[in-house]
Every structure is written in C-alpha cells, then in structure tokens.
Amino acid sequence: MTDFQHQAIRLTSMQRPETWLESLRTKAADDWLAQPWPTRKTEHWKYTPLQNLQKTILHAWGREEVPLLDTLLENNLAPLNAYRLIFIDGVFDPFNSSKLPAEVVQFSKANEDQQAVVLKYLGTIIEGERHLFATLSNAWLDDGVLIHVPRNQKLDKPVYIVNVSTAAPVTTNQRVLIVLEENSSAEIVEHYFSADPVQQGFVNSLTEIHIGDNASLQHYRLNLEEEQAQHIGAVHVDLQRNARLRGFAIALGASLMRIDYQLNHRGQGGELDLQGVYVPRNNQLVDYHTNICHWVPHCRSNEAFRGIVGDSAQAIFNGRIYIHQHAQKTLAELSNKNLLTSSKAEVNTKPELEIYADDVRCAHGATVSQLNTNARYYLQSRGLSRSEAEVMLSFGFINELLEQIAQPVVHDYLQPRLAALFGRDNSLNEASSLLGDSNG
C-alpha cells in the first residue's frame, strides 16, 4: 500500500457527493485499496515510471470560487460554435459556460430520469483490474457531465468541454458520460490545457461512451497541458449494432501523460476510426495505451497513431486489437509511426494482434525513424534553411492525420499551435504554413 493510495482515499472524505452515487463510490474505494500499485514489472506500466506520482502530495479539491480567466480563455479556446462547459481546476465556471440544452447536464443537477441514465451506464464499461485509475475515478466521484442524446435525435451543435489547470496545488477528478440512443448523433470536443507553466496538481479524467444501435459520434480529446502537468486519463467506449465512432486524440506531453483507450465492439456492423498524434519534447513523457476488442462478427476498426519525439522526451505506444473466436468477418488495421528528431529521444512501441477467429483480415505495424537527410538537403537546395526544412518534414509526417480531422475549426486551431512547437522564431512557423498552403 503506497502513500499515494492512502492520500487518495483521504481526499474522498473532503467531498460532498450526491447520495445516489454513494454505493458506486464506496465499492470503488474498497477496490482501490485492494489493488496492487503498478511497478516496472507490471506489463501495462513497464515503460511509464510512477515514482514521481508516488511522491506527489494530493492537495484539496479545486476552490468553489473559480478565478477570473477571461483573457486566458479567449486566447486559448477553439472558436467553436458549440455548447461550452468550462471547468477550472475541476470546478464548473457558469460565467464562461454556455446555456446548456436539455441533453447536457451536470450529475449534481440531474433530474430523476437523468439520474437513472447515469446509474445505468456509469462504471459499466471499465475493467477495474486493468484500469486502476478508472477505479480511483469512481472512488473520487462527486460530480460529472452527462451528455444524453435520445433516440432519433441529433445535437444541433458540438459540445465543447474545457478543463483548465491553474498553478494551484489541487487535485481534479474530471468525469464525462456520453450516452447516444438508437439512431442519434453528436460531436464532442474535450480540451485540457494549463493556465500557467507552473503546475502542482494532479488530473485524473475518465470519459465513458455508450453508442447505441446505428448511432454515430465524433469525439476529440486534446491534451495540451504544460510540461509540469501530471495527467492520467482514459476513454472507454461500447459500440452497439452498426454504431460508428470517429475519434481523434492529441497530446503534447507532460511530466506524466498517460491516456488509455478501451473500445469494445458489442454489436455487429460497428465501425471505428481512431487517430492520434503525440509531440513530446524537452523532458516530457506521453503514453498511449489502446485496446480494441472485437467481441462480435462483421465489425471494422482502423487505428493510426503518429508521434514526433524530440530533445530528451519519451513516448510509449501500446496498441492492442483482440479478435474473439466468434468475431468472424472482422476487418482491423493498426499503424504506429514515430519520428525521432534527437539522438536522446526515446520511443517504446508495441502493436499487438490477438486473433482467435479464422475468417478475418487484420494487419498491424510500427516504425521508428529519423528525418530523411536527402529530403532535407533537397529542401535546402530550394532555398529553405536547415531549420525550416526540418519543420516542413516534421509537419509532413503528422499532417496526413491532421488533414483528416473532420471538424474544420479543430483542424485550424491545432495546426498553428503545433507549428509553434517546432519553431523558435517566426520563420519556422512560416515554413509550416507553407506546408499547410501546399495541402490546401
């Protein structure tokens, strides 16, 4: 039993949870204390050190009076025409949030029918033994966001959930539950960023998604925190018959950044497209673990992640596709490509296929490479500096995935911010914009 586990349980007594959620919290707290702490011998945490997290002091929850961050929000938010929910250190900010439709509600404000939806689906997708911090999320549960789209309905605007971490030493437990009934559809953007380069808190986030028969969801998860941040998060999804999910994830890296995707095909005819980009630099760490399970026949999955790792940063990618013996006629592909821009950068990639059916079409692969020197020399011969050439080649490596982002505002928001990561001056940003123009 670690000090971190004891501190985590101590924090539960400092909350004011809804009574109708108490049974889930109590069971999760017991499970949290009973589960062993991950070590380097734990396969799913082999390359992700948790020593610094164990030394972290878990402070109180966020203040009820959120600080005024109007200018910061204006400069950092994507200009989406959306239903917007702002959370600062885990505390809802009604002043900067939108008026919400009936389909979007906080757990604490849910009526009896909405409470019934939460109780039916919350905590039903996760595998507690495999996802220790999902268990912790349940133990810390006191509020969250429910997005419930009824049968044959479509949200008229995206839902934009913004989570801001300040320099305050606070603990944040962010919880989202998305339930799409039969023939419904929605678009959700989750955005995490830091208000200050100094980060002293810890964020634990969990999004659970139920996509009903013939329903469709576009889901974006943007982890754009500062380097000192510590964030462990997860997205867990059940897809029913003919359900469709198109997901995009991006992480810039932090002192600890671990994101798990657990995706389950529960009904025949489901379609899943998941793409991701990670760009750690300096001494940052990014860890993506994805697990796609085909439990039924006639489903399709396509997963592609690309990473650019620079300086002394470290990236981990573990992508697994599991094909059950009854999941015949499955089509599944997994690709992970990595570009190292420094001799000190490190990547550990492990694509996995576990197949128990005999009538499937599956493929997986991973690459780790450096910048193509011939291509760089060619660009330099055309008048670009070496730095500009490296920016263009790096952007070309991830631009294929960026160009497939279905939401144009998200695409236009991310591209210049990614350019700024590579450039130390305006000329490098201009080089990346040239690449954007050539693709337009």
Written description of the protein model:
With 440 residues, the protein is α/β, with parallel strands linked by helices. The protein has two domains: 3-267, no CATH class; 381-440. It is 25% helix and 36% strand. The protein is built from ten helices and 19 strands. A ten-stranded mixed β-sheet has the order 2-1-5-7-9-11-13-15-17-19, with helices on one face. A hairpin with a 2-residue loop joins strand 1 (83-88) and strand 2 (91-92). Helix 8 packs antiparallel against helix 9 (408-422), helix 8 (386-402) crosses helix 10 (426-439) and helix 9 (408-422) packs antiparallel against helix 10. The longest helix is centred in the C-terminal third of the chain and has 17 residues, at 386-402. 47% of the residues are buried. Residues 424-432 have low confidence and may be disordered.
